[in-house]
Amino acid sequence: MTGLFITFEGPEGAGKTSVLQRINEIYSGSTQDILFTREPGGIEIAEKIREVILNKAHTAMHERTEALLYAAARAQHFFEKVEPALAAGTHVICDRFIDSSLAYQGHARGIGVAEVKAINEFAIGERMPDVTIFFDIKPERGLARIQEADEREKNRLDVEGLAFHHRVYEGYQQLITSYPSRIRVVNADQPIDVVVADVLAILNEVIGVK
Ligand SMILES: Nc1ncnc2c1ncn2[C@@H]1O[C@H](COP(=O)(O)OP(=O)(O)OP(=O)(O)O)[C@@H](O)[C@H]1O
Ligand SMILES: Cc1cn([C@H]2C[C@H](O)[C@@H](COP(=O)(O)O)O2)c(=O)[nH]c1=O
């Protein structure tokens, strides 16, 4: 049986990475076979593309270049790491996937959701996640968390203006309406232990208890 493909999505500072790390610790030593990974990145070639996309010095990057680079990183990561794991029966939990491209490049950058979906179909075919957990937090709250986190270096997208991050949030709201059975919404503006518990409840429901 193939594994389930689960993605975490949401605005900057929503807590996706922190919760993924906590879930990883909770599931380590369990009988469940789960691979934790992230986009853009997750494997060497895609991590190199990540450095190019997120480098703050690359202010001249055209939005179409950006969309194509995310799709290229996704193709490499998907075919090299995600697809083989799913085929071997391993569940995959990925920090960001195609919905990020649809919300950030398609909606917030203004390229168009259908256009960005089309280049991603070229990159990875029509594969969508089985389940997506949306970490719901208003952009101001998420960005404030990042500002407070001294250890975190701000990347080229973090430093976009608030209006951009509002459009990202709006893009995600449209995706939630478009994919009501796939996208599950968790209130990410709660203490991290509560967010972890809410995410675990969904994971236990879809992949079984740890
Ligand atoms: N529930 C929470 N309450 C308060 N602070 C939190 C919570 N979850 C995460 N944080 C803090 O917020 C900051 C951003 O968290 P994290 O990197 O996990 O978010 P993210 O969704 O992965 O962000 P990005 O997509 O921008 O990388 C970190 O400093 C983290 O410690
Ligand atoms: C996959 C993907 C990501 N992005 C943006 C979202 C974030 O600003 C960065 C990734 O940084 P993180 O700390 O790992 O969350 O990239 C995007 O715009 N489009 C995408 O497809």
UniProtKB/TrEMBL annotation:
CDD domains given in the database record: TMPK
Superkingdom: Bacteria
E.C. no: 2.7.4.9
Domain Thymidylate kinase-like, first and last residues per copy: 8-198
Keyword Ligase: no
Recorded catalytic activity of this chain's protein: dTMP + ATP = dTDP + ADP
GO biological process: dTDP biosynthetic process; dTTP biosynthetic process; dUDP biosynthetic process
Keywords noted in UniProt: ATP-binding, Kinase, Nucleotide biosynthesis, Nucleotide-binding, Transferase
TM region(s), chain numbering: none
Single GO molecular function: ATP binding
Residues at which ATP binds: 10-17
Any single GO CC term annotated in Swiss-Prot or TrEMBL for this entry: cytosol
Protein purpose: Phosphorylation of dTMP to form dTDP in both de novo and salvage pathways of dTTP synthesis.
Family as reported in the entry's similarity comment: Belongs to the thymidylate kinase family.
Protein name in UniProt: Thymidylate kinase
